[in-house]
Amino acid sequence: MSAVWKRELRSYLKSPVGYVYLFLYLIIAGACYSLFNLASNSSEVSLYFYFSCYIMILTVPILTMKLFPEERKNKTDQILITAPISITKMVLGKFFAAYTMFLISLVPSIFAMGFLYFNGHVETGILVGNYVGILLVGAAYIAIAMLMACVTESQIIAFMMGFFTLLIFAICDILKSVINISIADRIVDVISVSSRFEKLASGLFDFSSIFYFISLTVVFLFLIIRIIDKRRWS
Amino acid sequence: MIEVKNIVKQYGDKYAVNDISFKVDTGEIVGFLGPNGAGKSTTMNILTGYLSANSGTAIIDGIDILEDPTAAKRLIGFLPEQPPLYMDMTVKEYLNFVYDLKGCKFPRKEHLREICELIKITDVYDRMIKNLSKGYRQRVGFAQALVGNPPILILDEPTVGLDPRQIIEIRNLISRLGKKHTVILSTHILQEVQAVCDRIIVINKGQLVADGNAETLTYKTAGNRKLVARIAGGKTEIKKAVRAMDGVLYVEEIGSKEQGSHDFLIECQPSVDIRKPLFRLLAERGWFLMGLKSMDMSLEDVFVNLIANEGGAEG
How far, CA to CA in Å, does B175 sit from each of A30, A216, B150, B161, B231? Predict the structure, then answer.
């Protein structure tokens, strides 16, 4: 697993993809921070994280789009699948590589939030809740976008499908108010990311939300493993 | 070492591999021979666990590839048809990655250096794979298969894209590796199997057509025996006398290259060796045998014959 993780991480840092991701996320998140905190002289931390969840709809697919399509195009998946490691370990290696990039992109926020924490009025519970929330949302988004990358051989299609799937997960609450059908309501209640993120971000240590994000991640990773395994049989 | 039993691989209603069974013993070098699309690569992919067969089993050193894939894969070094190379890595990074991936326990530096020297890629060790020529890429792919020193090597067309000198080098290398490893290689180049393999398995249209060494294959498919004899004497009498011999099916004069003698093509039944009675006959009649050549079939002829009788599966 660590071999795959190391290779993917190195490939992020040696190719433009990793830097495009970091640049895009940091510039938009930085703009949010400047606007909501610095310019408006506020120490309200939630907005930064709330908007980060929406930025990630665009940036996470950049991170995941190359994970599988490139391997299949160059036939390098043959070395991974015929190596003495399980498919689960290979998928986890890729997942954690993308997650590591996601963590790297959060590093600057520690300084930004630390600045607010020591110079403004920030409730510790809310700050921790926001971090827990974004770490969980990041994992779930990466798993979802990875599944989209796993079913295609084209990076562009992987990106588009990842983007639109995440969009549905993220904005379904808005759709709910527009559509207003009871079945749609119930579906939205099941998949809504933002309502659960908001719970965590308000400083509420909501176990069902934490459980939701973790199971979302696990289910999607499991589907990826099944799809790759299934492909060997067809 | 390797046992394949009745494997079938279907894509839709098309059979890529249809009921192939064979065994490979430790230390053997076996060549898979067959035209393009015959099912060679599919069979190899099933053996290495990249694909799964619809039915049948592949057993590697007593381990079923489906039951304990990790243990079975640890015994195999695989060079696929297209070497699985990451273009954005140097040869060094790549081989180190493969070393980690296979979870090897040898002293890393020496093990990799040994392989590089064996495959002769030491001089490109620090170069990016994307900047290497096709021949070097093929060799890096070969090196990858050797990492971890697996007892079984499965090589899918290992000499494709190499120049003639490199082809000879790689063939010599395979012969050398065959002393310590069990090797299965696929090719559609006949000289290659003739040059390096102990045994040949011919596959056509997903089925095993023949299995044996070059001589037995030649013998099995040879059909009628053919000889060319150069005899000094009268043309028509010789023809008549030889035609009257037991087991001779056909005699034809095919030219006269030496003064006073004629070349005859003699075809006789496969069970009959005509050479001794022919010599006696000629001696009795006072004709001189100037030359005698048996027209053995080359492996090319065997191959063409086997492929032509499609479906004629025989062990």
Answer: 62, 53, 16, 19, 43
Say yes or no: B170 and B285 in one domain. Answer: no
Asked if residue B283 and residue B196 are part of one domain, the reply reads no
Measure the CA–CA gap between A38 and A29, rounded to whole angstroms.
Answer: 13
Q: Do B205 and B272 lie in a common domain?
A: no
Asked whether residue B267 falls in the same domain as residue B205, the answer is no
Burial class (CB in 10 A: 0-12, 13-18, 19+), A43: middle
**Domain termination residue (choose one: B167, B190, B220):** B220
Residues near B244 by beta carbon (within 8 Å), at least 6 away in sequence: none
CA distance A230 to chain B (A): 9
Does residue B73 belong to the interface with chain A, where contact is any CB pair within 8 Å?
Answer: yes
* pLDDT given for residue B165 in this prediction: 87
Q: Among partner residues B11, B86, B102, which is closest to A83 by beta-carbon distance?
A: B102
A75·B49 Cβ contact <8 A: no
Q: What is the ipTM of this complex?
A: 0.88
CATH of the domain at B175: 3.40.50.300
Q: What is the mean pLDDT of chain A?
A: 91
pLDDT under 50: residue ranges of chain A: none
Tell me which of B51, B94, B101 to substitute to probe the interface with A (most A C-beta atoms closer than 10 Å). B101
Determine contact, residues A173/A194, Cβ cutoff 8 Å: yes
Can you tell me the distance from the alpha carbon of A224 to that of A93, in angstroms, rounded to the nearest whole number?
13
HSE of B225, CA atoms in CB hemisphere, 13 A: 15
B90 and B58, same domain (yes or no): yes
CA distance B246 to A37: 108
Structure tokens at A126: 């809310």
Q: What is the pTM of this model?
A: 0.84
Q: What is the DSSP string of A10-21?
A: HHHHHSHHHHHH
Per CB-CB distance under 8 Å, the chain A contacts of B49 are 81-82, 232
Is B174 within the bounds of a domain? yes
Domain annotation covers residue B303: no
Number of domains in chain B: 2
Domain that holds residue B115: 2-220
Last residue of a domain, one of B169, B189, B220: B220
* B33 and B150 assigned to the same domain: yes
Which one, of A90, A93, A96, A95, lies nearest residue A228 by Cα?
Answer: A90
Which of B76, B85, B101 lies closest to A85 in CB terms?
B101
Give Cβ neighbours of residue B119 (< 8 Å, ≥ 6 apart): B139, B140, B142, B143, B146, B173
Angle at A213 between CA A207 and CA A217, to 5 degrees: 140
Q: Is the confidence at residue B311, as pLDDT, over 50?
A: no
CA B130 to chain centre: 31
